[in-house]
Amino acid sequence: MKLTITLAALLITGLAAHAQNYETRPWMPLENRIGLALGIGSVTYLDKNSSPLVYQSRPKNLRVFYNLESNDFLFSVDLDVRMGGNSPKYHNDRTLFFQEEDYKGNKEDKKFPAGGSFLAGRISLGAYYKISSTQESTFKVAVGGRIMNEMFYPQGWNTGGMFNALSFSPEALTQHRINEHHKFTASVRIPVIARLTRLPYDNTVSAPDKDQVRGFFRNSEWVGPRKFLAPAVTLGYNYQINQRWGAGLNYELGWYNIQQSQSMKALSQSLLANFYHQF
Amino acid sequence: MKPIKYIHSLFITAICSSFIMASCEEELIGPEKANTPTNNFEQFWKTFDEHYGMFDVKNIDWKAIHDQFKPKINDQMTDEELYKVLSDMIVLLNDNHLNLYPTNGKLPVFPGGVLSYRNGQLQILKVQEDYDLEVAKKYTTDYKQVTENIGYGKLATNLAYINLKGTDGLNDVEKQMEKIMTSVNDVSGVIIDIRGFYGGYDPVSQYVAGCFASSKKLYMTTKKRNGPLHTDFTETAEWYIEPKTSMPYTKPVIVLTSRFTQSAGETFALALKQFDHVKAIGDTTAGSFSDNPNFEMYNGWMFSVSVGDYRAPGGVSYEGFGLPPDVYSKTTKEDLLAGKDVTLEKAMEMLTH
User: Fold this and answer.
1) What's the CATH code of the domain at B99?
2) Which residue in A137, A204, A255 is closest to B307 by CB distance?
């Protein structure tokens, strides 16, 4: 019981101290931030492993994020899911025509669109150190790194565009505060090493005793920027509604130049509106 | 200038760059070539040249085929004319895994059936006339469809009937086959019907075949194209069949085959062909073992290409020929219309005598 009371007292003391700080907090206080973002985007790619056609998807985007920020460090965890239709950019109304007949003499003509779907997922973990010399400035810079697993999983008549990359990227980010309510952020990152998985040259996954997932991941290798070049830029605007709640807009642009099997290049953009809670 | 100023400048540059990058999509992704019949023909030919896995085993001079058909191509030709040229080209490869998928909604998928060369004459079998699951099911009692592609039931005279028409997810198949093997363990013979097995995923066929294996045996070797030269192949992969489930069935088994048995259906038949307690009855299979992913042309049409060289143990290739049955039997259209499955009856007779 004594232990419980002691722990409770320590906790209350800590919370009181935190609340005191909160009232007079510096610009980057210790804070947790959890948020949800919804948005739209586009993914355009040309995967020469299986097609000379440029594909384009306009997926919906959902992001859940968590940030832990102190005076010196910033940690972030992001989970992104993107889903949408998928079709060749200049042939988005393709129709297939099948003529079917059975032995009883029944004939049927079937037509249906040759579209597909696009699914992408990403989970990332970032850690950054704030450059101390800028602590009291309205312009802050942090440098660090991000470990990220990203997957493109288009489904349709063609296997193009599929990859998975577990990567590490050095990243720099900055925050520019206009006043108590308005803040702009920007970041740049570029992977320096990745565990990259693509379909092989033959575009198949079948291998003895392996299901399709294991068949796909058997074609993985560690690569550097020569085979997986994927710089990304993010821009953000945050509006601090009050000390607990905020909202914002985030734009992200990523370019992929993958040189495993035959080349694949992709351009990804997303624009998300987010709401977050600070505690 | 302080380092922070450099970083500030860097971010301003990054912001400007992002807008520039977004507006330079074509430069960053790459352009598409013009959609002309000439470009489509060359793309079609080149994709086969760089991916088809059986030029050597079938002794095909692909360059000569290019030179034979190229004069028929011009940029004023219609879709119908291009379709005719391309389909005539792939017929020469005698490969049931090659399909041409026009996407204008007017021209049908080619060939839309099974190629069959009999006495030097090409036929495209558009209609399967030797099998109907509904007729076969009438011979069974308590038929259960346990997955989308696997069903089974009991036959008279202590036999069991298992129907495979494709492959499902491996985890699901493993669970269901355990139940099926328990159910059929006490019967004196099993008939596995793959006449309507048009394809699927080979490792799943490997697993299901293993449910009827008495020992571990090599049944297939495969290699696939991994470069643009006709001699560019991956290392050879060896496929073994070995006993699966807690009670593999090793009493007499008969596999029913058809000219419409294709792809993973054929690798399944090839796996079971390695055992003396298994016999095949029916027609020669389609002769299309290799994986056949889809590729595309500038006009949006798609086509499949067999990328592998699949062999039986000993190096024999059945591509283009098909796997012959141990006993030839064919149910006719008239039989089916009369509600009879002659091949199934023959299998039942063989297992009971």
Assistant:
1) 3.30.750.44
2) A204
